Task: structure prediction
Amino acid sequence: MGEPGSTFLSSTTVLVILAAFYGATLYMALKIRRKKENADAYMTAGNNVGFGIAAASMTSTWIWASSLYASATSGYTYGISGPIHYGLWGALMILFIYPFGRRIRSIAPNAHTLAEIMRARHGSSSQLLLASSNVIGSIISLTTNFVAGGAIISLFSPFTFAQGVLFVAGGVLIYTLWSGFRASSLTDFMQLVAMFALIGVIIPIIFFAADFPSSFQTGAENLSAEQSNFFSSEAFLSQGAPYIAAVLAYAIGNQTIAQRLFAVREDLIKRTFVTATIGYGAMVIGIGMLGVLALYLGLTPYEGDANNIVPQMAAEHLPTVALGLFLVVIVGALSSTADSDLSALSSIMMADIYGQNVARRGTVDPKRMLLVGRVTMVLATTAGVLIASFRLDILDMLVFVGALWGALVFPVISSFYWGRVTNRAFVTAVLAALAVFLPVRFEWLPVDGALGALLGVAVDVLGVLGIGVIIGLMAFGFFGLRVGCVAAVLAVVGASPWALGTLHDYTVLSGSLVAYSVSTLVCVLMSMRSGQEFDFSTIHARVGNFDSAETTDDAGRASGGPDAPVDSTDAARPDDAGSRPAETAPTGPKE
Amino acid sequence: MDLLLSVYVLMWPALVLGVLVVIAGGFARDARRARDEGRPMI
Result:
């Protein structure tokens, strides 16, 4: 059909597609609109979302436009195992985070953000550290999705990149603004149905239109030995391993995942996460297969940009009608993540900033809180559009933030299990990890002479320990402390022979790994000396609902259900949670 | 080998459709339950 850039779809067609997509989404959002919105429902939908919406929302939020492009790029670059090393590890991270999710829900069933629990557990410095990293990550993610939207629209139509960004930003904001998380998660379902139904059909169409399976024979010479090898070590080391390290951090550092964790009905957490794992993996690996097919076909990416592989495959092998549907897939993927980012940002500003750090104790006004949430969405959208207009390499920034979040993983997880972790240990561990991460990641360390060799060894040792931390945490989540420790030791022993001496050459990977290891070492050493034994049962009483108002739908019916908001006059009000554990917990810290 | 590769490529969209059926079924059950109880779905 030609190549991207030659505007396959007319302006009218694209406008009709966008209007139909965002119109249907807005219609769904308006159907659940309430005359008097509830602040807690705006953030977590009353902690009582059923399986269908929760699984759809978790899946479609985790899938974003960049993951579709990146998986195809991985397939094109690393061959037949490439999509696995992108999609499988990302999918497994959803699975690995679920046992921690169950623990978090059990000790704080009515929470809105992870940072909110950190305040109840440690104090405001830990809360703000986590909340600020969440905000940075969400704004970058939001921007990335706007950029992807602008790029795909400008690629397929006469519209410019800036116009595409504005269409997407406006479309997402307009349906998310009024009902927040409720709108985001309900519309996620519709977006997921569109994405999955179309991808289930589009990939086989492309497969047969490109003359596969015959092209496996004729195009085999286009693959190197490594690309033809399903067990390619190059694919694992260059794609899979850094991704394993980054995505576990992403699951902890990204508020969109936490928000869904707090929203789903507690007994449905496992089912939701397992379904999302399979759904995400199948979708992303499936799209990645387009990269593998492109490799067999000997396709050259337009303008040398690997991000054009998926649009090119679609443009060359799909009829125009299907090309329009393909646009819906991409817009659905980026919109479901962008609306989740807006909801995440608004809940952080509502609960962590306004609810617990701006409003005085006992004076949290749910109406003002809602206003804060909505203003946050407008400002975040504006910021996202402005940053997108600079056309920075956003993906690089996101990878950077993902690695940065490695510093938070152990302190956050251990804070939910180990009573000895203190606020000081949490903050010091994170800051120390960042101090080591930055020079390793940006190669500021000297590499020549004896000092360079010594620092290289130090980075390798810390990196190997970081591998142990990641594997140990994963095993710990499912099988407990003993198995976690054994797995960590085995991982360190197994990784040492190949990692020592070479790991420091992979700065993205080693930067992330040292963030894990340094934060773990500092947190463990300081906590062991603390003598504190935190009573986790006190968190339940400190993290609760903000809004006591009954809500009504458009028909005037009362809503709330079995998990209706508690009375804000309750002593467990979160705006009273500002006090540190030592001041209120019966068995609090003994420092 | 071609058959294996074809299965390898086409199993993912099939899995996608399978998950879609599971999630849509869950959504339909949630909607029915909400309607029976006279409350909003979310």
Q: What stands out?
A: The helical segments of chain B are 2-37. The first helix of chain B runs from residue 2 to 37.
